[in-house]
Amino acid sequence: MTKPQSREFEFEERLYQDYALKSRTRLIIILSAILYASFISLDWVHAPRELFPLFLYLRLGVLAAHLVLFLLLGQMKTNRDYAKIVITVGFFDVLGIAVMIYFLGGFVSAYVQGLSIIIMGSVIALPLSFRDSGLVFILIWASYIIPSLLNMPSWKANWRNVITNLFFLTSILIIGSIGSYFMDKLRRRELRGRIQLEETTAQLQESNTKLKSLDELKTQFFANVNHELRTPLTLILAPLKAVLEGRMGKLSPTHKDTLETMQRNGYKLLKLINNLLDLNKLEEGKMRLRLKSVNLVDFIPPLLASVKPLADQKQIRLYCQNPPHPVDLTLDPDQFEKVVFNLLSNALKFTSKGGKITVYVEEKDHTVTMTVEDTGIGIPENMLETIFDRFSQVDGSKSRAQEGTGIGLALAREIVLVHKGSIRAESELGRGSRFIVEMLKGEEHFDDEVLDRRSEDLPIGLKRRLSDTEEPHVQDIVTDFRRLQLVDLEKVDIEGGRVDQAKIHDALILCIDDNPEVLKLMKMLLADEYDLELVTSAEKGFVFLREKNPDLVLCDVMMPGMDGHAFAKAVKKDESLKHIPIILVTARTGAEMLAEGMQAGADDYITKPFDSTELKARIRGQLRLRQMEAELSLVNRNLKMRTSDLVEQQRSLFLSTVKSLASAIDAKDEYTRHHSTRVTEFTVKIAVKMGFSGKELGDLELAALLHDVGKIAVPESILNKPGKLTDEEFKLIKEHPARGESILSPVIELKEIARIVRSHHERYDGTGYPDRLKGREIPLGARIMAIADTYDSITSERPYRKPASHRFAVKEIIGCSGTQFDPEVVEHFLETASTFVPDQGQDQEEAAKEA
Ligand code: ADP
User: Fold this and answer.
1) Residue 63 CB partners (closer than 8 Å, separation 6+)
2) Which residues contact 178 (CB under 8 A, 6 or more apart)?
3) Which of 535, 696, 721, 762 is the Cys-Cys partner for 778 at CB 3.0 to 4.6 Å?
4) DSSP state letter for 226
5) Residue from 273, 392, 402, 409 to probe ligand 1 pocket by mutation (most atoms less than 8 Å from CB)
6) Distance of CA 468 to the CA centre of its chain
């Protein structure tokens, strides 16, 4: 048999079993037998007398079959076997009726009603599958049809009755089939649902068992923590206490300071473990109360007195408001003290300087309330419920302003709850919070099982815990209960963080951490090698950074206000600070954290707890890197300076060469001697009128001085030719502006000058050479120089003519304004032209002549 079949088989078995098929089968056989026997009376009335003996034997035979099947039941194993027996009973019943129908005239026989009874019975009484009932129904139908067909004559005689009987029987069969189909479906669906439910329940039970065993493991684990963590920790703290008390010799202030830091942090850890253990005990229901009647009016003040030094440190005022009469309450004083301490220490933690804390005790008919009210930061409304959950904190982000684990209030609530009291918080954000503890009067409400009825009556701190017996020292530490409760509120003094005001080391390091103890540790590790500045916030660090420009910053990541990442980002954005290397210090590890830090611009990263060698190595690495960078940039600056010196030298060398070239040209042409110098003088005068100054003027001056440098390539014979020049010669002369440009352009700084030189023979109307530039396409310098050049040519002697007068030259230039020259430049020329001639005598003569 394949697997799915066997599953189907099992399912059917379940189905039959759920309907108690086995017991039903017995009942059905008996009922069927009784009915079959009782119908003998009907035979007596209905059947023809001669048939009665036959019918009697028939019925006895069927009854005998019932008996046999009944006896066989004992042999049957499965439900399916029982179903087969039921079907067989039906078969014999039907067979008997079939024979009787045959003898009673077939189709018209009234005994067909017996078949209807069997159909009804099988649908109602038996959880038969649709398949099985189908089989039974076919059998029933056949048992009517076959004997009737065999006894045809009477059918022919009374065909109306035949149709009626056939119709009824078939209808009942159809109704029965539909009925059994739906019944079967329903039964199966119901069973399937039930099986699923059973499976789920089983699974639930299994996980429940697992959870239970896990829970036991957890409890076991906590018990182990008790021993494995608390014992070694107290074994550290106990001798430390002795050392600090001076029982092992005198301590230097530095040693004392360091040992105190160790002690404080040991206490913090111990408090955390104790709280966790208490909370676990409470949740396990293992906390036992040692009830006592306590007058709250006397109970609260000593507790307030013990937090007073801390409140004074923070300049917070403490008040207590009691009724004038005693307020008695039955409670476990040791446990209740923890509630009060937790509320007080939270109030101290979350209230800033100058604030106020008040404890009210109020008595009502059946209850007493104790309220701790502060003027601190307050709690958001949506958190008022959840703060009592384990590990819940209002500001759980990495910028928490206060240390804490979120256990205090959970513990307080559990303690109040075992006392059958209630605790709730009210608050106005920014204004303050109020924690209200409501306790029932009397002691009837205490469950018997939470009471510790042992006779010893020591405060909880002094009670020996089972695990402590073998270590006597441990006791002293665990009993330092109040110290433990308040240890994380103690402010650590980091004043004098600077080792010395005078600089005594090569590098100054700024250390930023909101935890003063970490700062103290850094000081201890680094003070002998570096100058240090210790600050408790990134904001303060920033101010210091601007004022003192330290060589490196060590900065904690998780801090209230500006955190390490934000700090690094801000520093790296600031041009004047970004060179300062930042090493971030974090307690969190992981690639994500690293990536975040690096993105913020941190130069390096170190994780807590850090090892002093690693810390120093990282610092040294960063400082060396920075030093190398500084040295490199110095070398770079020197190199740049040297290079620009060299360039300058080269330029002046070149210029002096070119200048001597220019004077060589002037010398080449005896008529144009000093031409370049004069053109330069005139050009500068016009340019100054036009507003030229600085480098622009310098460049133009140089351009004017060198404007004819290209003539170096023109033979002297042509330059000095007295007669008219041939076309060929003129062409050669016209090449000099372009040649001048190509002599000057290799030197980058002279590029602009070269351009002016190239264009000094261009004409304003675009008919000049070499490029036929027009109007403003011609560089302004060249437009100025063209006028100066023309003026000098007209007024100086040439091989082919005598020098003309100043007036003449001016007239000529005015005449060419707009064609050869830029009219605007001509105007400026006119403004200054009178200064071109030192002696105007000749002009005056000419003017007189003209007049
Ligand atoms: P924690 O160790 O963090 O102080 P608690 O369970 O004592 O744990 O407190 C849970 C949180 O409830 C605190 O982190 C704080 O956010 C908030 N809280 C408790 N008391 C006060 C208070 N007096 N003022 C403001 N916030 C408070």
Assistant:
1) 33, 36, 37
2) none
3) 762
4) I
5) 409
6) 44
Is residue 680 a contact partner of residue 703, using CB atoms and an 8 Å limit? no
CA distance 567 to 205: 54
Probe target for ligand 1 pocket from 275, 387, 414, 424, with the most ligand atoms within 8 Å of CB: 387
Residue with tokens 């029932």: 440
Q: Which two tokens stand for residue 93?
A: 């019943």
- Rounded (5°) CA angle 94-99-100: 95
Query: Residue 691: how many CB atoms within 10 A of its CB?
Result: 9
φ, ψ of residue 811 in degrees (nearest 5): -60, -45
Compute, in angstroms, the gap from residue 358 CA to the centroid of ligand 1.
17
Q: Which residue type is seen at 165?
A: N
Six-digit token string for 291: 């009830």
Report the alpha-carbon distance of residue 158 to residue 274 in Å, rounded: 102
Q: Which helix (H) or strand (E) covers residue 359, if one does?
A: strand 356-363
Q: How far apart (Å, rounded) are the C-alpha atoms in residues 681 and 805?
A: 18
Ligand 1 binding site (Cβ under 6 Å of any ligand atom): 342, 346-347, 350, 374, 376-379, 387, 392-395, 404-410, 433
Residue with tokens 């014979």: 717
Q: What is the amino acid identity at position 287?
A: M
428 C-alpha to ligand 1 centroid (Å): 14
Ligand 1: centre distance to CA 307 (Å): 17
- What are the structure tokens assigned to 172, written together? 């009942």
Ligand 1 centre distance from Cα of residue 362 (Å): 24
Q: Tell me which residue of 439, 251, 469, 186 sits closest to 335, measured CA to CA.
A: 439
Task: Confirm if 101 and 112 have CB atoms less than 8 A apart.
Answer: yes
Q: In what order do the strands lie in the sheet with 604-607?
A: 531-535, 508-512, 552-556, 582-586, 604-607
CB 736 within 8 A of CB 769: no
The rounded distance, in Å, linking the Cα atoms of 623 and 627 is 6
Separation of alpha carbons 101 and 114, rounded Å: 10
Question: What is the CA 667 to chain-centroid distance, rounded?
Answer: 83
Give the strand pairing for 552-556 and 508-512. parallel
β-pair partners for 294: 329
| Degrees to nearest 5, angle at CA 698 with 692 and 702 | 125
Q: In this structure, is the dihedral angle defined by the CA atoms of residues 93, 94, 97 and 99, taken in order, positive or negative? A: negative
At 113, list the tokens.
């009603």
Report CA(822)–ligand 1 centroid distance (Å): 87
Average confidence (pLDDT) per 10 residues, the chain, 851 residues? 64 79 86 89 84 90 93 86 86 87 78 80 75 82 82 64 80 85 87 90 92 81 72 80 84 84 83 79 78 91 86 89 92 90 90 92 93 92 87 57 74 91 92 94 84 54 42 50 66 50 73 87 85 91 90 90 91 91 82 76 83 86 89 90 82 75 70 79 93 88 87 78 81 89 79 90 92 93 93 82 87 93 94 78 49 43
Burial class (CB in 10 A: 0-12, 13-18, 19+), 725: middle
Measured by CA distance, the residue closest to atom 14 of ligand 1 is: 393
- Span from the CA of 432 to the centroid of ligand 1 (angstroms): 12
Q: Per-residue b/e over 57-88, b at no fewer than 16 CB within 10 Å?
A: ebbeebbebbeebbeeeeebeebebbbebbbb
CA distances from 583 to 250, 401, 515 (A): 38, 22, 17
Do 604 and 621 meet the contact criterion of CB atoms below 8 Å apart? yes
Residues in the chain: 851
Half-sphere exposure of 421 (CA within 13 A, CB side): 28
DSSP, res 390: T
Distance CA 638, CA 656 (A): 27
13, two tokens: 């078995």
**CA triple 523-528-531, angle to 5 deg:** 70
